[in-house]
Each structure stands twice: as structure tokens, then as C-alpha cells.
Specification:
The complex is a heterodimer of chains A (about 300) and B (about 180).
Chain A lengths: L1 H26 L13 H8 L8 H5 L6 H16 L11 H14 L1 H9 L6 H5 L2 H6 L18 H4 E2 L8 E2 L12 H4 L17 H10 L6 E4 L4 E4 L8 E3 L2 E3 L5 H7 L27 H4 L17
Antiparallel strand pairs in A: 1-2, 3-4, 5-6
Chain B lengths: L4 H14 L20 H14 L13 H11 L4 H20 L8 H13 L12 H17 L11 H5 L17
The chains are: A mainly alpha (about 300), B mainly alpha (about 180).
Amino acid sequence: MKKRYYILIMLVAFFIVGISSYVTWNTLYPNYTCALCHEIKPVCSKWEQSVHAEVVCIDCHGKALESVQSAKEKLNMIYTHFTKKKTFEDIYLSEKQSLAIANRCAECHQAELVAWKSGAHSASYKDIFMDVEHNKMERPYWDCFRCHGMFYDGDIDVLMTMVGDVDKWKIKETKQMNKPTISCLACHQSHHEQPRNIPYEKMDENTRATLAEKAKYPATALYMRADRRHMPSADLQKITLFEQDSLRQIIDDPNTLLCMQCHAPNTARQIGSEDDKTPTGVYEGMNCITCHDPHSNMLKTSYRNVHK
Amino acid sequence: MKYNRRNFIKQCIALYGSTLLLPACSTRGKTQTYRSFSPLQADCLGAICEQIIPTDEYPGAIDSGVVNYIDRQIYIRFPELKELYHEGIQAVNSYCTSVYNKEFTALSWDDQTQLLLTMEKGELPEEHWEKASQREFFRIVRRNTMQGFYGAPHHGGNKDYISYRMMNLNYPFIAGQNRYGEK
């Protein structure tokens, strides 16, 4: 009888302690919970400096008891923490996780989501890899993922079968067909250090004075598939382009440099070659987002003959 | 201890209370920790690597994360090198303590250089190098330092693409589609 009594007490205590610990864990500031973990310390430091500093971990990463998948993921984190000596360099996002994060982004950034959906940047795997006309010109290969499907977990042979005539090529997994190839994290790093969104009237004089300087560091970053990490746009290397033998001026604007990573010229760096869209003529030196909406890619105003 | 209700409740409270000590695990403010080296070993190795690629107008081996690269490679890919590194570092410090009465990191820059030049030739006193070959140790450290500094950053070194920028490499590589069928 006494034994049963203790077991019952233990179960009730375990339940109460478990629930209260779980609630406490989810309520405390991340510095006392997630950020204690050395694996993610560098990421947490960046998050504290980002515009998302007021958005706590669980808002994007979810709670453990949110779903079976989430519970499994969090338990795996705990297991890995105590059994393997991992560092933040060993942590990568799978495509599934990157799309889940994109869905979280969309909860607040509704306008950007609508713009993105209306433009070419929301192209699916089917749109990109099942384009027969394009496939006739260039057989899809691993480097396509540099700009289309940068978070894809496999290689081109895992994604599609390329046997027989081009029009018979197909994507192996049906569920992959409609997934977007360029999601939020292709051009954004959620923990990226950047100026906090403080209203101008609340800034002190020093902050106002450095505002223009800070504006050079936009909230964009390139996801580099080869390295499985982001490079902030402000750190991208300025490149030189040519028109025949003449050197052409390229604006020193991080966002333009980001666009140019995919809207890129050939290896001879000739303006207008391949996917290059560098403005020429009287528009030389302009940046991309002067005319284009960055999410939908659509023109803000009517310009003609901007690109060669 | 007698197992009764009172003790049981005390133990439960103690167990739950102990979770309040979790913040003590925080690594905030502490120096970087390594998986294959103690902090002292890492300092010594960093000083050796810095001699091979010193800081000039560009960051050197320490700032580019070479020690992190070596630590990572030993832990993930080449655990067989761990012994050589540990013995080599111990031998270097043992020699420095016997001759200079201080460890390698405390030597002057010129003394460190001279010591490594001698080690490269295999001319340091053998009594300190009974477990490891000094020439082999130098060769491995030099090779791994080069790899860490010039290799791809996802291996743990070349922090912030330092060497790529130094060499003005086109990285990330910019190239459009080939479109070899298009005229």
C-alpha cells in the first residue's frame, strides 16, 4: 500500500515538476535557457544584435511539445548535446527546416510573402528543373543548386531522373515538385547582426550620426550552399565587369552584389552575358532595388533599355 | 537514510532546485574551448602556428582560426594525430622550460622563430623528443596550418574568408548559366 502511495506521489510530482519546468523554460529569457548551450552561443550573440532580438527563440524555432516532429527534434538536440562534442560549425539547416523557418517569417512579414509569391523568386522545383526548353540548352547539374534549391539535401541525381528524351525527364519525388527553390533564407540570415529598428526620434545623437554608416549593412546575406552558411551582403566582394574591352562601373551596393551572385555574367565577366542584368547606358551605376521590388522582382517604375 | 515521505519530498525539492544551477554551465565570457586540446596546449599550438603564418597587414594563423581547424580535424577525421600533437607540444614546452625557464608562449618572437628553425632541422636535444619526432611534428603542424589558413572555411579555419580576401580570390564564385546550346 505504502509503495503504491509513493509511486502515485512520484508520478504526480513528476507531472507537476515537468509541466512547471517546461513552462518556466519557455518563459525565461533565452540567455538563461537555450543560450546556455555552447553549441549555439555564437548564434545567440548574433541574434542579440539583430533586429529580431525581441523575437525569442520559441517564436521561430517552436516549442518542444508543439508537435511530434518538434519533440523529436528537441530531444535529439539534448541527446547530441550530452553525447557528442558538437560546435556551432557542425549545425546546418536541412531543407525541411529552412522551409519551416520561412513559414515562421511569413507570420509577420505578410507583405513580403505576397510579393515573393507573385514573382519569379517563388519558382518551384517543377518550374526550374522541368523546364524542357531550358533543359535542351543545358542539362541540370549540381551547380544549379547554387541559386535554385540551395538548401536541397541531395544532389541532382537524387532530385531527378534524366534518362531518354528531355521531355521524359522527371523529378523523382512528387512532394518535391511544388516546394519553393528560393526561400527567405536564401537571401536573409535571421540571426544576422544589423542595426536595430529604433525609431529615429528615440535615437541619441551618436546613433543618428552613425545611421548613414550603418545603412550600408543591409539585412541581407547570401546562403552559400558549398559552405552551408551565410555571407552578409556587406562582405561580398565587389566585382569588375567588362563591355568588350572597356571596364564598366559597378555600384558598391551590397544588395546589388547579392543579386549579382545569381544574376551573373559569364566567366569573362561580360556585361549582358548569361544571366547578367547590370544596368548600362544612362542607367550605369544604378542599384537593382531602385527599380525592382526585391521580393517580387517586379518593376517599381517604368524603365526601358536599362539592361543590355 | 531512512526512506520516508519527508526524505522523499526533500530529495524531490533538492533535485528540482539543482536545475537552478544550470546557468553555471554558461560559457558566456569564457575563452574558446577545444575538443582535442586543453587551453594551455591550444595557446602553445597557436603560438607555433602564428610563427608559420604571422600577422602582418592581414590576420595571421591565430586570428584566422587555424587552431580551431586543427582541433576540428583531429576530433572528426584524424584522431590518430592527437597523440603526436600532444607529445609534440609537451616536448616543445619541456625544452623551453629546461633552457629558458618558461613556456614557449612566453618566449620572445625571435626566440620562438629560432627554436622552430632548429626543430625543422631536427636539431633540438633528443632527450625531449623520445616519444615524438620533432621533424615529423613540425611537418604536420606546418601542413595543417597551411590547410587551415588557405582551405575552405567550413572545415573550421580561414575565418571570414581571410586568406581568400588576401589573395583577392573570386569567392563566392560568380558565373551565370552555361547555356551551351544558345547562340
